[in-house]
Amino acid sequence: MTPLTQEWIDKAEGDWGTASREIRVRNNPNYDAVCFHTQQCAEKYLKGFLQNAGVAFPKTHDLLNLLNLILPIEPGFARLLNELTVLMTFAVDSRYPNFSATKIEAKEAVKHCRLVRTIVRQSFNLPLK
Question: CB-side exposure of 94: number of CA atoms within 13 Å?
Fold first, then answer.
């Protein structure tokens, strides 16, 4: 694993940590933040995978675009299509007015992100912590 790949993973883990903590908050939880950080976690894990494989990728929040770049290298990631489709909806909308995530949406986002995180970490032989 290259140092840059490790930076992507570290950034992804930072987003995972933020989402994981915020979903457990009892007073005034920010479910929008949970959704945003799960999307960001998935995005950074995918970009880290691509970077490690030497595949150039555009500056994008489009998780399906990133998935399509990965599939020729790792067809097994196709099983993440549903998860990435759901998470992609939180890339921008969750940061602006006219969107308010519910607790149910936030929990679903964490569930979807957990699978993406697990699959990518397994591909790097990293512990799931």
Answer: 23
Residues 115, 82 contacting (CB under 8 angstroms): no
Question: In whole angstroms, what is the distance from residue 8 CA to residue 45 CA?
Answer: 7
* Four-residue CA torsion sign, 16, 20, 23, 29: negative
Domains (range + CATH), the chain: 3-123 (1.20.120.330)
- Tens-binned pLDDT, residue by residue, of the chain (129 aa): 899 999 999 999 999 999 999 999 999 999 999 999 999 999 999 999 999 999 999 999 999 999 999 999 999 999 999 999 999 999 877 677 777 899 999 999 999 999 999 999 999 999 987
d(CA 35, CA 90): 6
pTM: 0.94
